[in-house]
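Quick one - inputs below.
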Amino acid sequence: MIEVKSLKKSFGTNEVLKEINVTVKPQEVVVVIGPSGSGKSTFLRCINMLETITDGHVFIEGTDLTDKKTDINKLRTEVGMVFQQFNLFPHKKVIENIMLAPMKVRKVSAEKARVKGLGLLRKVGLVDKAEAYPDSLSGGQKQRVAIARALAMEPNIMLFDEPTSALDPEMVGEVLEVMKQLAKDGMTMVVVTHEMGFAKEVGDRVLFMDGGLIVEENTPKELFDNPQEERTKAFLSKIL
Amino acid sequence: MDFRWDLIVEYAPLFLKGTLLTIGLSIAGILIGTVLGLFIGLGKMMRKKLWALPFKWYINFFRGTPFMVQILLIHFAVVPAFLDTTNAILAAILALSLNSAAYVSEIFRAGIQSINRGQMEAARSLGMTHGQAMKYVILPQAFKRMIPPLGNEFIVLIKDSSLAALIAAPELMYWGRAMQGQYMRAWEPYLTATVIYLVLTLSLSSLLSLLERRLATE
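Output:
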């Protein structure tokens, strides 16, 4: 589904990703953990080309992102992304946030987009907020809207970039709950997070990144209970 | 000091004509200046430095030289070079538009660049093209932030239009000066002009704050 082959990314002379090789299978939930500055967000952002790729290849369902002939806009409709800072459109109501891309990109009619949007809002428990503006929502509600907005494009893959890091602690649960449901429904997911509980419960595989490399990868149980690498042990001892 | 209300009454039709022309010049300047300003602002934001250069120097020129010089140059040199004759109203509209375009372009650029990068990323991650993201996500938000500085600029433009009197465009200030010349009195013509300019600028700013309130999202 996602195939990352010797991916390298530099900002100027700063080499953020040194050599990343990952394969994500359909319906798999891959959780990426690691210290800040380890390149995990950059890795995620390379998967839908929010960052230009310096070297290497990323294949999404067989299509090479780095191929100049690839229609990146079309590819992005298959890959939903949820950001740490939500990035809802503040000038649009919640329902309009969700309807915008299906209408403009997929050319869906307003009525169809609204029905679909309300359905998604029901799914994330926010149907009563459809006509509200994002500024009036709590952080947890904003992030659930952001998830619904990404889902409206019916993506095959969802990327989560520290979706709960900007939330007050009591709001983390409601967002994780939505993500768990999504995983249960069979969505292919790559999640950068510090929520180890989520990683253990939902993750099929955990990647530990440090210094632009994947230091260790394993099932959550193995990686958390029986880490092999010294750096993994050091990191886990600090956060668990 | 006696204040000659009767002279103002006598000049009222001319002040009215002048005010209408002032409004006309200002509206033309605002409309043309804004459209041109958007274009120049986009030009200056082009990634390729060399392509952005002419737009940068356009702004340098019109921001860096006095408006009085610009309007005289356009009236006595530029317009005759093309039309073989002078045309005060055309020259005034040209000068006001070209001058305000320089300021509007910078307001436009600042408005766009003030929008968080995450907005563009979110729009692009949903599959929108750069153009769609601009049109539906960035520009509507930027426009809201541009209203207060644009209001400033439009007020400056209304006031600057008084310099069209120098090239004998018969706007408000032109008739003020004519009245002073005819009756050798200063208070009556210039206080009248002051009040009319104030009414014009205050009307514009209340119009803009109305617009701002209508675009508010809590």
